[in-house]
Amino acid sequence: MTEQGKPVVPSRVMADEWHPLRALTRARIGLGRSGNAQRTTDVLAFQAAHAQARDAVHTPLNVQDMERQLHGAECLHVHSRATDRATYLRRPDLGRRLGEQSLHQLRKGAWDVVFVAADGLSSIATQTNAVPFFMAMQPLLPGWRIAPLVIATQSRVALGDEIAQAMGARMVVMMIGERPGLSVADSLGIYLTYAPYVGCPDSLRNCLSNIHAHGMTIPAGAAKLAWLMHEANRLGLTGVGLKDAAPDKVLSKYTPSLHDKDTDA
Amino acid sequence: MGYRHTLGGESYHFRDIKTLLAVASPLRSGDQLAGLAAQSDAQRMAARYALADVPLRSFVETDLVPYEEDEVTRLIVDTHDHTAFAPIAHMTVGEFRDWLLSHQADTPSLARIAPGITPEMAAAVSKLMRNQDLMSVARKVRVVTKFRNTIGLSGCLSSRLQPNHPTDDLKGIAASTLDGLLYGMGDAVIGINPATDSVANGLALLDMLDHARQLYNIPTQTCVLTHVTNTLEIMNRGGAVDLVFQSVAGTQKANEGFGVNLAILREAHQAALALGRGTVGQNVMYFETGQGAALSAGAHHGIDQQTVEARAYAVARAFDPLLVNTVVGFIGPEYLYDGKQVIRAGLEDHFCAKLMGVPMGCDACYTNHAEVDQDDMDNLMTLLGVAGITFLIGVPGADDIMLNYQSLSFHDILTLRHALGAKPAPEFAAWLERMGLYDPHANQMRPLELGQTPLAKLVSAA
């Protein structure tokens, strides 16, 4: 208490000294404290970031907006067997299979590849990045027979397998919203699978992650995917066999741990 | 034969002990996903009544996964201490609960029976316990371990400082480490989850941490949480390995999913012991576990997720670990749906591990697609603190920018230490005091500016 008896608000001096260190990491360092607790500004900032991340999970994908982004290019809309978000979150198995109506709607063709834009765990990621990524791939795949874009809702990674099977596509590229963190809520993941089938294991896929404004850019991701697709075509496979052939810069090494168990696959 | 109980005029039958355990388990989404959960609340209660009458001996006589096909079962059976089990051998699960809560079951007697308790017994009795029972029994158990300091003493609450960085930037990690040390964090371990899981990267990170530790003579241990095979190679190359880390689970097949088996863990344990880097003790292993890991690997053998999780503690126990922690909310809502389920699971994991004599800590955490928030973490950490948790994990501002999930902040752990009157490990507390960071009489960390502490050089030295 001051002489006047007014309470003293904790100063921000301590926090400001951290300014140069904050350039080294986006971690929430040097917050300062009030007693032992976080100060009001930091509590509110944290809760706001959490709110945005939750909204990214729960906001439905705006399919009309994605169609508009395609400027008249043909696309299809399918739905998984998970009827709503609550079911989707509890039952990953249902998010991996096509709803009956959607399955009947798909026609067999002779496609080299089908691209799927799936909501996954962040509809915001898909809405922001999936169509631009699909467009960026077009000039990198000259002569490829590319199926119309499929927009998939309440979808997990493996839904692409059934879509590709039903459409007769040799390869599937799943563009799917990744589980949002506090700092990034709009990160897109890309999964490439050669000759996919229902029940195909994740070890047969290759993955690019962290595609967003502050992570891997769309042109960089598209170039990496094009390399993987051409190699997949040449070798007739994806997954571990393709990863082993990739230069270090294309993919990092994968070792399973508990922290990988939160797969959105 | 199976088990039977009549409740409200309806007779319920349970095919075997595995089914009985699953149906008796408190509701959680992972058991529903596996098709193992009770179909109704009444059926769950019938299972609990039936479970209360099951003799503890049944768990010695019945293998949930066949002995011939699972090395975790073989470990549990072959190392079961019959002498330690003798004092409780005549009890049913219900009687065991009553005895655990009695005043006769004090700290020394719980320590004596620990080697006689199998994971299945611990899981079974936990299913008859309310949250307060899980806490009041666990807080009577003392598991003390040592490396460069002493973890698990009465009145202490340790912490793992987790300074992760999305590109493993050494200075970025050093900045987060500095932040945590100023809050008195890191007495359990300063431990990094690497973004890139390679031998070269692990060596670089360990070198930086070890240099910082020696620069200030910090009485703690450091760790890079890379795969055990990487750590073995790092030790071969002369890297600064204090602790060997590995994620483990409760069945052989689930451990194969993590790329490990008991033989490789034994090899790593021996290699770390041979380094002799501990100063006050030689507990050199660090394990993480978590409910749902076995099911997500398709390796749960029809066992409910809490029981199969407890079997992971038998794996941990075999290697005299310094630290074990459950990563309780990380796995996602398909295994633990909301705050209630995460809190219950955290208390169960802590109780079962402590009952078995394992030094259990917790990463109280959640992902953004679960129905959990920081208020749930406040509740969980406080309940675990009352239960006598060995250590909690802290990250700057509770936000792990590499793994994209939320844990506890350094502030949270400081708040809890203050509320409970709990202190850091004694050697570490003495160091904090020598560094002018800690007022031991008030049990408070001094709010210093960077210019007031020599620790600030930690970042430029990295």
UniProtKB/TrEMBL annotation, chain A:
It is an enzyme of class 4 (lyase). GO terms for biological process: amino acid metabolic process; ethanolamine catabolic process. Adenosylcob(III)alamin binds at V157, E178, C207. Its EC number is 4.3.1.7. HAMAP family: EutC (MF_00601). Pathway: Amine and polyamine degradation; ethanolamine degradation. Its cofactor is adenosylcob(III)alamin. It comes from the Bacteria. The keyword Amino-acid biosynthesis does not apply. Pfam families: EutC (PF05985). GO terms for molecular function: cobalamin binding; ethanolamine ammonia-lyase activity. It is found in: Bacterial microcompartment. Belongs to the EutC family. Binds between the large and small subunits. The basic unit is a heterodimer which dimerizes to form tetramers. The heterotetramers trimerize; 6 large subunits form a core ring with 6 small subunits projecting outwards. Its main location: other. Catalyzes the deamination of various vicinal amino-alcohols to oxo compounds. Allows this organism to utilize ethanolamine as the sole source of nitrogen and carbon in the presence of external vitamin B12. Keywords: Bacterial microcompartment, Cobalamin, Cobalt, Lyase. It catalyses: ethanolamine = acetaldehyde + NH4(+). One of its GO terms (cellular component) is ethanolamine degradation polyhedral organelle. InterPro entries: EutC (IPR009246), EutC_C (IPR042251), EutC_N (IPR042255). This is Ethanolamine ammonia-lyase small subunit. Signal peptide: none annotated.
TrEMBL record, chain B:
Keywords: Bacterial microcompartment, Cobalamin, Cobalt, Lyase. It holds the Pfam family EutB. GO terms for molecular function: cobalamin binding; ethanolamine ammonia-lyase activity. GO terms for biological process: amino acid metabolic process; ethanolamine catabolic process. The keyword Metal-binding does not apply. Its cofactor is adenosylcob(III)alamin. Binds between the large and small subunits. Its EC number is 4.3.1.7. Adenosylcob(III)alamin binds at P194, Q246, S296, M402. It is found in: Bacterial microcompartment. Pathway: Amine and polyamine degradation; ethanolamine degradation. Substrate binds at R160, L161, Q162, N193, E288, D363. One of its GO terms (cellular component) is cytosol. It is an enzyme of class 4 (lyase). It catalyses: ethanolamine = acetaldehyde + NH4(+). Catalyzes the deamination of various vicinal amino-alcohols to oxo compounds. Allows this organism to utilize ethanolamine as the sole source of nitrogen and carbon in the presence of vitamin B12. Belongs to the EutB family. The basic unit is a heterodimer which dimerizes to form tetramers. The heterotetramers trimerize; 6 large subunits form a core ring with 6 small subunits projecting outwards. NCBIfam families: PRK15067.1. This is Ethanolamine ammonia-lyase large subunit. It comes from Acetobacter okinawensis.
